[in-house]
Amino acid sequence: MILRSGHTPFMNQTSLFEIDIKQAKLNRLPKDGSVYYQSAFMDVESSAQFMHHLQHSIPWEADQLILFGKKITTRRKVAWVGDPQCTYTYSGVKKEPRVWTPELLVIKDRMEELAHAEFNSCLLNFYHDGEDGMGWHSDDEKELDSQSPIASLSLGATRKFAFKHKQDKKTSTLLLENGSALVMHPPTQEFWKHALLKTKTIHSPRINLTFRKMKLHHA
Ligand SMILES: O=C(O)CCC(=O)C(=O)O
Ligand SMILES: [Fe+2]
């Protein structure tokens, strides 16, 4: 598949995405939720092209969050894409979504097929290297539909992702490889936190796209 300007390489190419039935049945959590991992969901060549495309076309911005009462700016970069009504408050900062690109809509379709759900928004994260990560959190903001799964696609460097149970602190880790997909089903966010761990020995970038469903009418 050759990436040419003015040409959308991901349109209608369902064969770029593979679902492995064995992996699709294997819950990575021992209790209180379910998480399914698909290695090589997107093929290697498409993953590289899509990563390159996103790296250069997305208006990446530093993330701002409140940590111990202080506003901090992350080295990790983010972008927020979604349907027009999908404003989102993330760590105390309100965000307006950017419009879906044709490429992102194709990926969204495939992620919906994998997760058996519909998504209306996507948070994109850019990690320069292993010094960028994401701390322990649950994706349980009030704007999110807690009945919907959350599905993410990883591109680039393999990184360690971890779950920690909120009550017994039991942890479960897995590696998120280039082209892999991860689906977290309810009630995972209620019982578990997750984090993208820092790994000093990794010197190449990673992009993660997290597809979500927001409630469009909330008080
Ligand atoms: O980068 C990842 O794999 C995880 C990102 C994440 O947890 C999030 O965006 O909420
Ligand atoms: Fe998350």
TrEMBL record:
Q: Which Pfam families match?
A: 2OG-FeII_Oxy_2
Q: What is the superkingdom listed in this entry's lineage?
A: Bacteria
Query: What is its cofactor?
Result: Fe(2+)
- Record flagged with keyword DNA damage: yes
GO terms of biological process kind: DNA alkylation repair
Indicate the segments forming the Fe2OG dioxygenase domain, all copies: 118-215
> What GO annotations for molecular function exist for this entry?
broad specificity oxidative DNA demethylase activity; cytosine C-5 DNA demethylase activity; ferrous iron binding
Protein name (record): Alkylated DNA repair dioxygenase AlkB
